[in-house]
Amino acid sequence: MPGDCVNLLSGGVDSTLVQVLLGPGHRAAAATIDSPEFAFETENARRSAELCGVFLEQKAVLESSLPELLERQSALAALPLPLAQVSLIASVFELDGRFFSSGFDSDSLFSLPRSKRKRLLEGVPPHSLEAESFSVSPETELLKTLFGEKRIEERLEARKTYVRNRLSEPDRVSRLELGCLTSLYCSSFAVYRHLASERGKTLFTPFMDCRLVESALTIPLPERVYRQGIFKPVLKHVLARHLPAYPKNLEKGGSGLPRTRLCAEGPFKGYFLENSPPAFLDPGKAAFLLNPSWDSSMTAYRCIAWSAWEKTLSFIPEEERPWE
Predict the structure, then answer these.
(1) pTM strictly above 0.90
(2) What CATH number should be reported for the domain holding residue 21?
(3) Strands (E), 44-129
(4) In order along the chain (324 residues), what is the average pLDDT of each group of 10 residues?
(5) 232 and 303 share a domain?
(6) Do 160 and 84 touch, CB atoms closer than 8 A?
(7) Are residues 266 and 137 in the same domain?
(8) For a surface tag, which of 112, 143, 165, 170 has the fewest beta carbons within 10 Å of its beta carbon?
(9) For residue 38, what are the domain limits?
(10) Count of domains observed in the chain
(11) How far apart are CA 22 and CA 112, in angstroms?
(12) 72 with 118, same domain?
């Protein structure tokens, strides 16, 4: 890494390990927001920065500014932003610095999604997890209502084929490994890297390095992701050797935002009273956008993100619209 690299430090195992391995002289930065649900994330980042002996630079964002921030970041990226936290975290790239590092994509190789971790703690055998269930919306039933079950199945099958075609011997890969690789290929890291690039900056993650990925895949599953009741055992073991003071059982939130409250009560409430729903959405099935709940807020947010992106297209001169 370049000597003036700025590490995106969330305070979790992954970004803290990157900070430690970068060594002295590398800055640490985090995006912060005044959402009460995010307060513990900010405190985790500050604690890790202190343990690593670095000052945590913060890019503060107001929750009330999220719609404007989303539209601005969507215009910069020229694509819909897939997660509510993308525009927040990408605001860090506005800080001084040419090179940024992160712990993105470690979970795909060395851990499991939260929903899968819950199932294992309930006693479900790791190798029984279906590969197709990785990196899918928890609102599948709503999506089937919006687009039809056949179309959803076709998209999942196309993704499965995409992942398998990138493996030299896909038939020898376990379902659990295929699920982890599916998560890796569905990573949002490319979106963050693109947003950094549009600002003339470069974003790295060691967990997408070919050598590290190949080395990780030599560690058998499920031990690589879950061992003796502990998730992410490999990275936690490495971090404990380099930073023994790091709390072993720190609860990490994944830098997620409270999307249901933001859409139902917060700054995104009523977004579609002033903006058009996405062009692909059947108006007869769009009522949930005006009153999103826990079971529909992820889809509601993604419709907001798509609408914000479509708004940016309206500013492109007609002669420069090859899609029309």
Answers:
(1) yes
(2) 3.40.50.620
(3) 56-61, 99-101
(4) 85 95 92 93 95 96 96 93 94 96 95 93 93 92 95 95 94 94 94 96 94 94 94 96 89 74 96 93 93 95 95 73 57
(5) no
(6) no
(7) no
(8) 165
(9) 1-105+188-253
(10) 3
(11) 25
(12) no
